[in-house]
Amino acid sequence: MTFIDSNWFRSTTTADEGFDGTYPTNVVVRNNGSCFYLPPGIFKSTCKIDITWFPFDDQRCEMKFGSWTYDGLQLDLQLQDDGGGDISNFITNGEWDLLGVPGKRNELYYNCCPEPYIDITFVIIIRRRTLYYFFNLIVPCVLIASMAVLGFTLPPDSGEKLSLGVTILLSLTVFLNMVAETMPATSEAVPLLGTYFNCIMFMVASSVVSTILILNYHHRNADTHIMSPWVRLVFLTWLPKILLMHRPGQGNNGNSYSSTSRPSSVQTDRKTINFPDVELKERSSKSLLANVLDIDDDFRHNYRGGGTPTPLPATFFRAVYRNNEETNNGGGPRLQEQGIVSSHTCISADYELAMILKEIRFITDQMRKEDEAHSITRDWQFAAMVVDRLCLIIFTLFTIIATLAVLFSAPHIIVS
């Protein structure tokens, strides 16, 4: 054993960064003339990082040892162990796992010199521990994406449907900034986690746009929009059948009519007056008043002939009036004396009934217009429900497929 000052010292350093090995360390000289020199020190080197699979990535960093001055005939470097570097004393790191440090002896020939130049290259293979990133970035991102999907189950009238989508979009922006801070600034590769976050952010942004379309459809009415035939065909016929959706209260016949029983005659004191068969239509509003008001149109259609139409209510009133007069007075001169009064009374009743019918027809028309407007509004609301259900299915499938694609495309998923 001797000191380094009394021995010839080779100029062997790392090729990446200068290392000062001037610390006085003993050199072991063996009987065969070989020397064992182990200077203490911390070797620092730089290597290129591939972040394509971040945070499921493996990195390979090379450290090259050789002489700048002496060729292979003057200085022959040999590996002490064919397995590479000794990692038995490696201290476990919280972020990286050391998989191995294989070494290789290289002989290089240059054009300037016929002698070989020898170097020893160690490859440090490390793997990132993904447990931290999995539970602090990926799992929250999946939960936020699920909340964005569940936003399609909120009713449009709640008022929080759009606010939820915007809040989720802001949350994903915060998580994406956290990912950007943990990665090296490089434009050579796009990390896997960044790709996943961008896909989820695109999905959430698309869900916000879809929510705006849904709210637009939901709040449309007959005064502002007319549903085009292709919208009615797609959103009210085709898609509900594909999505297995049925409108509440709608039977198999759609807007079918059902007949309602009504008395066919009215029994007066002395005479039975028969009514023609008038079918009452069941309105979508289920209103008894609407059924009563529809009788006017049915009477007018059933009694309309080639001549001047005679209102049925006035005819019916005169018949009942004359019948009551005959019953009370027994006919004779008394009835003839009151004929003029009866005629004037019937004329006055005809006028009053005509005015009443006019008002009833106006009310009936207004109720029909309201029913039509409500029907158009309900059509738009149902179309919004169909779009809501369609977006729920599409974005759910997109989230599941994107998550599975990211997890299964990675070299490894979880390394604790």
Q: Any overview of this molecule?
A:
The protein has 416 residues and is an alpha+beta fold. The chain has 3 domains: 4-129, Distorted Sandwich (Acetylcholine Binding Protein, Chain: A), CATH 2.70.170.10; 133-248 and 394-409, Methane Monooxygenase Hydroxylase, Chain G, domain 1 (Up-down Bundle), CATH 1.20.58; 265-389, no CATH class. It has helices at 131-150, 161-182, 192-218, 229-242, 288-302, 312-329, 333-337, 339-409; strands at 12-14, 27-29, 35-37, 58-67, 96-100, 103-109, 116-128, 265-267, 272-274. Strands 1, 4, 5, 6 and 7 form a 5-stranded antiparallel beta sheet that branches. It has a two-stranded antiparallel sheet with strand order 2-3. The chain has a two-stranded antiparallel sheet with strand order 8-9. Helix 1 packs antiparallel against helix 2 and helix 4 (229-242) packs across helix 8. The chain is rod-shaped and about 150 Å long. Residues 252-289, 302-314 and 331-337 have low confidence and may be disordered.
Features:
single chain, rod-shaped, alpha+beta, Acetylcholine Binding Protein, Chain: A, 416 residues, Methane Monooxygenase Hydroxylase, Chain G, domain 1, 8 helices
- Give the class from helix and strand content and strand pairing: alpha+beta
Low-confidence stretches: 252-289, 302-314, 331-337
DSSP helix count?
8
Question: From the alpha-carbon coordinates, what is the Rg to the nearest angstrom?
Answer: 47 Å
Domain count, please report it.
3
CATH topology of the largest domain: Methane Monooxygenase Hydroxylase, Chain G, domain 1
* Largest sheet features: 5 strands, antiparallel
List the helices and strands in order.
EEEEEEEHHHHEEHHHH
* SS strand fraction: 5-15%
Shape: rod-shaped
The CATH level-2 architecture of the largest domain is identified as: Up-down Bundle
Q: What is the top-level CATH class of the largest domain?
A: Mainly Alpha
